[in-house]
């Protein structure tokens, strides 16, 4: 029998043990910053310097040598490398690059990437300068003041939805790792697949949609994910 077609969804919980904060845990990012001030297109239009500063600080944190992929990122990269062509997709909601650094290849960043900037004039995506400012210039079109962080804010369309929907429509196994299930459309993926695919949640604690999964295992990602993969 052919190996199952797998779709894996990851969230901030998988990077927690690498030293990056989640969003909605008590020590999370939304405990220190108001969503309406930093993570909406309206916030960026109102105060681009404040929003750029929020992402510049998180980008700087990613460059800290102490922030590295952990055993869960490594295990998913191994799974990617070992699984047949056309039967695997890792969809991450994370804007960090820890899956990339671990070596995952069939990877889609549905909420964008902290390390990149996007030009509002020519739509080019380029490596973000260390500090993005309202005066930063686009390396493609030369426009100044046209760059924004390449991330998906509330009210914006996530990236790669066609590819994700196609993979979900075909998958035999859906695994959700380290996500609270509070943000759509990602939180709805399990409902889309649960009537025909096996579904598994790996999370520190039961997520909002835990009851929708065939099976849920609770604990730290660095333990649960390698145990699932190997
Ligand atoms: C561990 C662990 C360990 C801890 N091991 N586990 C009503 C009003 C307005 C809007 C809406 C509405 N209802 C629905 C919407 C839409 C809205 C939405 O969902 N809002 C909700 C708040 C209700 N969604 C959108 O606007 C999205 N766009 C959209 O819907 O477009 C329309 C459309 C799409 C598709 C088809 C048709 C139409 C866009 C959402 C963009 C989200 N952006 C952010 C910010 C990205 C940039 C940045 O990083 O700053 O994405 S918000 C933030 O939340 C970030 C994350 O990717 C996302 C999800 O968070 P995540 O990863 O789940 O983290 P946490 O903190 O919530 O959970 C961590 C979990 O890990 C916890 O469960 C812990 O227990 C666990 N954990 N340590 C294992 N060691």
Automatic annotation (TrEMBL):
It catalyses: N(6)-succinyl-L-lysyl-[protein] + NAD(+) + H2O = 2''-O-succinyl-ADP-D-ribose + nicotinamide + L-lysyl-[protein]; N(6)-acetyl-L-lysyl-[protein] + NAD(+) + H2O = 2''-O-acetyl-ADP-D-ribose + nicotinamide + L-lysyl-[protein]. It comes from the Bacteria. The active site is at 111 (proton acceptor). Its EC number is 2.3.1.286. One of its GO terms (molecular function) is NAD+ binding. GO terms for cellular component: cytoplasm. Substrate binds at residues 55, 58. NAD(+) binds at residues 93-96, 178-180, 203-205, 221. Its cofactor is Zn(2+). Zn(2+) binds at residues 119, 122, 138, 141. The keyword Hydrolase applies. Residues 1-230 form the Deacetylase sirtuin-type domain. Keywords: Cytoplasm, Hydrolase, Metal-binding, NAD, Transferase, Zinc. Pfam families: SIR2. It is found in: Cytoplasm. The keyword NAD applies. Binds 1 zinc ion per subunit. 2 residues (Tyr-55 and Arg-58) present in a large hydrophobic pocket are probably involved in substrate specificity. They are important for desuccinylation activity, but dispensable for deacetylation activity. NAD-dependent lysine deacetylase and desuccinylase that specifically removes acetyl and succinyl groups on target proteins. Modulates the activities of several proteins which are inactive in their acylated form. Belongs to the sirtuin family. Class III subfamily. This is NAD-dependent protein deacylase. It comes from Muricoccus pecuniae. The lineage of its organism: Bacteria, Pseudomonadati, Pseudomonadota, Alphaproteobacteria, Acetobacterales. The gene is cobB.
């Amino acid at each position: 029998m052919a190996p199952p077609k797998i779709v894996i969804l990851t969230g901030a919980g998988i990077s927690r043990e690498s030293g990056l904060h989640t969003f909605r845990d008590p020590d999370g990012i939304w405990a220190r910053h108001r969503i309406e001030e930093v993570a909406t297109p309206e916030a960026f239009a109102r105060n681009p310097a404040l929003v750029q500063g929020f992402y510049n600080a998180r980008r700087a944190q990613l460059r800290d040598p102490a922030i590295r992929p952990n055993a869960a990122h490594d295990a998913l990269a191994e799974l990617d490398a070992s699984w047949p062509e056309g039967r695997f997709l890792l969809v991450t909601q994370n804007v960090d690059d820890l899956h990339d650094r671990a070596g995952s290849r069939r990877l889609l960043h549905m909420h964008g990437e902290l390390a990149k900037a996007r030009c509002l004039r020519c739509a080019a995506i380029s490596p973000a300068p260390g500090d993005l400012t309202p005066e930063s210039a686009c390396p493609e079109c030369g426009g100044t003041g046209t760059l924004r962080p390449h991330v998906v804010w509330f009210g914006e369309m996530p990236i790669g939805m066609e590819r994700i929907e196609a993979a979900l429509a075909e998958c035999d196994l859906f695994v959700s790792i380290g996500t609270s299930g509070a943000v759509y459309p990602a939180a709805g993926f399990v409902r889309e697949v649960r009537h025909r695919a096996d579904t598994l949640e790996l999370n520190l604690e039961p997520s909002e949609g835990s009851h929708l999964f065939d099976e849920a295992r609770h604990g730290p990602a660095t333990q649960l994910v390698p145990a699932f993969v190997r």
